Structure formats: structure tokens, C-alpha cells
Input
Amino acid sequence: MSRSELLAADGAATAALIASGEASANEVLDFWLERAGSDALNGYLWRADRESARRGVAADGPLAGVPLAIKDIFCTEGVPTTAASRMLETYVPPYTATAVGRVAGAGMPMLGKTNMDEFAMGSSNENSAFGPSLNPWDHERVPGGSSGGSAAVVAGGLAPWALGTDTGGSIRQPAGFCGIVGLKPTYGSISRFGMIAFASSLDQCGPLTRSVTDAALLLDVLQGRDRMDSTSVGIEGGIARPSAERLDGLTFGVPRGLIGEGIEGGVLARFEETLLKIADLGGTIADIELPHAGHAISAYYVLAPAEASTNLSRYDGVRYGLRASDEDLLSMYEVTREEGFGPEVKRRIMLGTYALSSGYYDAYYGRAQRVRTRIVEDFDRAFGDVDFVVTPTSPTVAFRLGEKTEDPWAMYQSDLFTVPMSLAGIPAISIPAGLARPDGGGPELPVGFQIAAPAFAEQRLLDASFALEGAIGFDGTAALEGGVA
Amino acid sequence: MSTEYEAVIGLEIHVQLSTRTKMFCGCELSFGDDPNVHTCPICLAHPGVLPVPNEEAVFYALQIGAALDCELSPISSFDRKNYFYPDNPKAYQITQAARPFAVDGRLGDVRIHHAHLEEDAAKTIHTGGAGRIAGSDASLVDFNRGGTPLVEIVTEPDLKSGAQVREWGQLLRATIKQLGVSDVNMEEGSLRCDANISIRPAGSDELGTKTELKNMNSFRFIERGIEAEIARQKEIVAAGGEVVQETLHFDPASGELHSLRSKEEAHDYRYLPEPDLVPVVPTQELLDRARGSLPELPAARAQRYEEMGVSEQAALLLAFETEWAEFFEGVLDAGDAIEPRVAANWVTGEFAAELRKQDDQPLAESKVDPAGLATLIGLVAAKKISHGAGKTVLEAMVAEGSDPEAVVAEKGLEQISDTGELEKIVVQAIEDNPKPAEQVRSGNEKAIGALVGAVMKATQGRADGGEVNRLLRRHLGL
Output
């Protein structure tokens, strides 16, 4: 099997090569380990060797031998897990996350742990304590975040596919920036056990892949009720490989009120073209209202930091991870947290602590919860009329490194279209819809198209995405060699 | 005239549940094991872990709620209570703040505001210094206890004195012990009590500024601590001062109260709904099972015993201690026609005293079974042996586990039923003790005791006291 054939194969195709005997599992693993070893994107924070890649991995299974990359937010027994934070730079978990156990149980070796924004807080991967991951389409640009490393290694040909997590867009936005598929499943469909918490009521594991079929295959392996996660329920009936070619009888709602200011011309153009393709496939386009979605970012940046402020309190220097001082108790807490956390994490801990403080709770947390309820109701109402809600994944294409680091609010706007679905807990996917130049000029970069569906309607979502993916015919091969030095 | 003040007291009682495992993980509960052997990533709050509620703990909690005559909530939920301390590994405690599992109950004359489920903290040991964190050389944490299921019971401020708190606390402890859901051992900390105390002019409806008395490990200390605090508050007010809201510790050794922290230092716990847990929605079947599984609780049992004729004191003693009650009922079942009052007096009186006398034997390890004690009581009731001889037999039974009838035969304790024989001994006793005999004859009836004693000594306790008295009086011409 030639290297170019192995590189060209997505997860499903690789599984087929192994199943047919055209390529051996060893050959496949060695190829991908070598690719991962020439990472020019700072996409990996830790890389496996042949032995460690296979540790705990089942010999058989539906995806046996197809390796994957795992975001460094999933705990892996015996393998460093940092969440891209100085706080956990030396942390080696004594247990393995359920999601990781599931892919290992399906026979998938682990190539390595991917870079991310510290504790999944960020939209550009620039908040990693270990330096940003780079966009394989243009190394001057961000891959998006927080699952930036996972998106970069998949798009840049350093892994066939990867696991990420999405709290407000952390799978979909980097998938869009890197020209790959990113799926955030319904909250509760995949166990969160062993996934380092950012905002517990929003965090959800999901796949970053080269194709919709791959997303379906991984989701089927990952989903399921887990007794270690009381909030997990799984997806009834599992997920079948998508095969739809048409969109007849399906209605796609466009929240026009949301898609206005701040959106780049090229992004909007690809979005409108994709709507036309939907119509070509027999689908119907309808305008819908999501009256409260405009407040989603504000509500999200109260709720997520509030939960984060308590989730990150455990990093106190007492039991594991960084302990920067042991002068006395207070200085151990203060110096450890001062040195262990980066600026964005500190900003969110401060925001969240403030929002939960006595006397402010109702004005901030309480009100944000009420907005969240309204947004849930908005989607419920919309799904009474349409089958899907569609938006661009992000208002812009991938921006330049450093372009938004001084302006958190501008950075937060990057999640404008992804956060409402997170607050509603519903599944949403980003598929590549073509290339566009940023406003003000620059190289052609991928544009993501987001499709959201009602809770647990993943099968329908993947079927429709598969049909649309075929019609769009996006070609990401240009980036595949962008990952290696 | 100075104003009379009355105390207003409410209690917060923490009950460690005796489930097999911890509240949110699979670690076994333990007491006294080596430090940090009952821990796992979950109770050590490693990154990424999630809590899973213990069903047994939920059921035990519902039983407590039912026993306290509470309304059991159709839906309850967990919240995070945030504070940093080394014994609190997540830096938040999972508790129930907004929606507890049980509300509006009553035990005896005290109303229950609510009861909620939560997890216990780990144990910190500060070495060097005074055992407090300030000034210590180092602090060690033992996470074995961390995550133990707790039910916190919060009363309305219905109590008025330290003595009432002690009595009610004992009733509560006996009630929970009866349920079998906790060891309720205050010294080991499986039952802990905090008291909120304020004073107000007698008869007023207003509530004064309260202080909180923390974590005392016996109801006797609680009683003393509360009395000391009430006295302190009255003194402050009498001197024209104002009580300051603070948390206090009572030192039973010195009898002094120390301030732990003032209101200004109070934590802002930044409560929020626990996003990692779904609400607890007990099924009707579970609620019915919790209510239906309640054993006879101490208050009801004491009442039943009193209705059987048992004295109030004995009834309460038996009702508060399940194993004693079971022993007592075993005696009644084993003996034909033993009067409950008599049996209760033997069990809580002579028998309990004899166990204490002989190395403080626990009832569970006693060689005496209810049937044996029933036989003994039967012998005394039928006047086959005297009450005094009965005690002698009991001593042997407790020491050796002997058969009472065999002891009677062996020691010749059978009561002297031949009046002629007894009469001879009585006459002899009067002759041998002329002084008390003369005193009785001249009107000092109390002196007869010495003569009774002489007869008893001569008969080695085998005489019936009533009969001895009758004969003595006749021969002394009374």
C-alpha cells in the first residue's frame, strides 16, 4: 500500500483497507505514527510509540487498527493529560475516560494527545500553555479552538480522525476553520466521565473527521449510557452508516435575524451557495426566528464561567498537579493558582466567581439560566416547523495568530452561531462548504456550514449532512501536506 | 424589675449513614483503618471524574425522612457548596440546598424544618502547635472519611434549654439507631450536632441574634455548652451589650467557649445547582417501601410498654435501646404469665446492674438468655426463692451462664416454706438481739430492720421477707 493511498484514506476507508487485507494494521499504525512524528503544527502535546499506542486496545472491533488522535482533555491512564495547562503539566491520570475506553474497545490505537486551549477555554488554541497549534491551510493562522489540535492534525494529515470536546463550539468552529467535519452530539449521548470538566452542563465529546461517514462511525462507537456519568443516556438504536443522496421533504430553517453584522462576505457567499445546493437536492429552505439566540453569547459567558469557576477549584496544589508554594495554606492556594492558570482561565474563574457571589446570583446566573430556557424554547418552536436549523459555523474564516488575543469580546463573537445549540443541548455538525478569502484579503480558507437538529436526531442529521457533503464535493487534500515539516 | 429572657434553640444534626460505600463513589466506608486506603479518583477529585449517587444512601435518607414524619419530596436535587479547604477535595461539597429530600416533619415536640443529603469532608490533622491549622508544623489529610453519605437534619427553633436538647437529642439518636441506617456514635463522629442559640425577652415572638455552637461529641457536652452559651448571652444583654453573630466551640474540659469565626469571616458559598447530577425522583414504590419499612420507633415503643404497665422510666430505657427491648420482649415470650412491669424492672434494674458490675459486659455478649432470666423471674414470682436469693442466682448466671434452677438447688437457696422452722429462727433472732428487740417494743418500729437482717443472715437469704416481717411483729407483740 502506497503512502499516498494511506494518507488519502479517511477512517472508514482505512478500516476497509485493513478489513480487506490490502493494508495490515501494523503498516497503518506505523504510517500514522510517522506522520504524527513529523508534526509541524504543534498539534500533538504527547505522541505514542507502537507499544503505547496499542496499550489497552482491543485486537478486534469494528474499527480495529484505525488509529486516532485524542484531545488532551481526556484522561488516559499512565499517559500525561494536561488540558494544555501548566497546572497539570506533570499530571498522569490513574484512570481512563469512558470515551477513550470505548474507542480502545473498538480496536483503535491512540496516536497521541492533541493540543487545545487551556481547559478548553478559547476559540483559537492560543490559550494553550504549550503554544498554539497552527492551521494546516496557513501556518500564520489559528486552527480555531478549543479542539484546535484535533482539527489541525486531522486536516493536516497527522491523524485519520480525532476526538474533541465542544462546550460552546469547540469542535464545530475548529472543524470549520480547518475544512473538516466536526460533530457535537446531543448533550448526554456520550459519557463525560474522564473528560476534564470546563462547563459541566454544556461539555460534550464528539468526533473531528474528514467525512460525515467517519463522524457517524465514531459516534456509534462513542455513544451510550455510562453508569459513571449520571447525565449520560446514549442514543437509542445507535447510529447507522449514512447513505442518503437526496433531501426531499426536509426543511432547513435559516435564522436570518442572527446572520447579519460581523459576518465576512466570503463566508456569507459560501453559506448562500450551500442553501442553493440544499434546494437542488430537494430540500426546502425556510426563514425562522430564534428570538433569544442573540443573547446566547452573553448568557453563555455567565453560565460557562460560573460552572468553570467551581470545576477548576479542585486545582489547589493539595493532591496532584502543580504545587507552587507550601509556605502556608493560603499561599499554597494562591501561588499555585497564580502560576498554574493562564490569563483566559483566570478571567473566566473571576467572571464565574463574581456571577455566583451572594447578592449577584439572580442578576447574573439566574438571569442567564432564564435566557437559556428561552433559547431551548426557541429551538423547540423552530423544530415544530423545520427539520434542521442551518447557519455558517463561524462569522469568519480562520484569523491570524494574535489577531484577537487582545480583545476577548471579539474572540467570544467567534462562537456566535455555535453557542445557541450548546445552550439548547442539541446536536450540531459543521461540514466544509468551500473556501473563501477573509475580508481584507488573504489566502483561500475553509468555510464551515453548520446544521443543527432536535435532541437525539443524530441519525437524521448525519444522513442529511452526508447527502449535502456529496453535493458540495469539498476537497481538503491541499491541507493534507500542510501538517508536516 | 429586670426582664426575664428565654432561650431559642434550633439544631443541625449530621448523621453519617452506614451504607456499604460512599455517597458518590464505590469506596467502602470504614472507621479506624490506615489513612487514605479507601480512596479512588472520584473521592480524591481527580480531573474529569463525576459523582454517581448511592442508591442505598438515598433509601436510608428517605427512611429517616419518614421516621421524622416529613413530607418526602417527589423531586429533590443536589447543589454545589463552594469553599477551599484541604479536607474538601473538589473545593465544593455536594449537598442539597434548594430542594432537600424531606421537609416539614416532627419528632416529639420539635418540628423538623427539613432533612437533606450530602457528603462528608475528609479528616485533617494538624501536627505541632495546638492542633489548629494556625501555628501547626504541617497538615495531613486522611480521605477515608471524605465522601461518606450524610443526612443533615435541621430543626425549627423549638427547643428552650440544654436539658431539653439533650433529651430530644437522645430520642433522635435512638430513633435513627432503630432504623439501622447509622451507627449514631457521637465520639466517632457518626452523629454530630450543631446548635443555633439566641435569647429573647420571655414571651416575645422575635428572634435575637444567634450564635452557632459547633460539633460537640456528646449530648451531655451539648447540654453544658448550651447552658454556658445561654448564660453568656444573658450576661451580655444584662450588661447592656449586644450578642454578636459568630461560631463558637465549647471546650468541655475547661467549660469555656471560644470563637471560631465571626460573621465578617463567614464564607460566601456561591451555591449553584450541581450540573453533574440529575434530580432525585423517587418512585412511588420506593417511597412506599421507605415508609413501609419503618420499624417500631422509640416513641411508639415506649408508649406501648407503658400501656402494658411498665414504669415510664423503664419503658424509655428499653425503647431507646433496641437490643434491650428485644431482650425484654424475649423474657415476656419465654415466661408464662410474667408481669411486664416485673420483667422490665428485672431487665433494666437487677440484670443491667449485674452486667455493669461484672466487667461492664455488653448485653450482646452476655451468657444470660431471655429464657434463663424468665425462669429466674418465675422462681421469684412464685416465691420459690426470695428476691434476695434471686439476685444471688443472677450473679451466678451472669458469671457462668448457669441454669437458675440448678443454682438454686446447688446453693440450697430454696425459700423456707416451713413456717415452723422459720418461726424457730425468728425467736432465736429476737433472743440474740435484745437491744433492737427492746427498741421495737418501745415503739421504734424502724429498729425491726436489724432483726430482719439477722433472720436473713441465718437463713442465707432463703426466707420470704414478708413472712419474716409478719412473724417478727407477732413475736414482738405488735
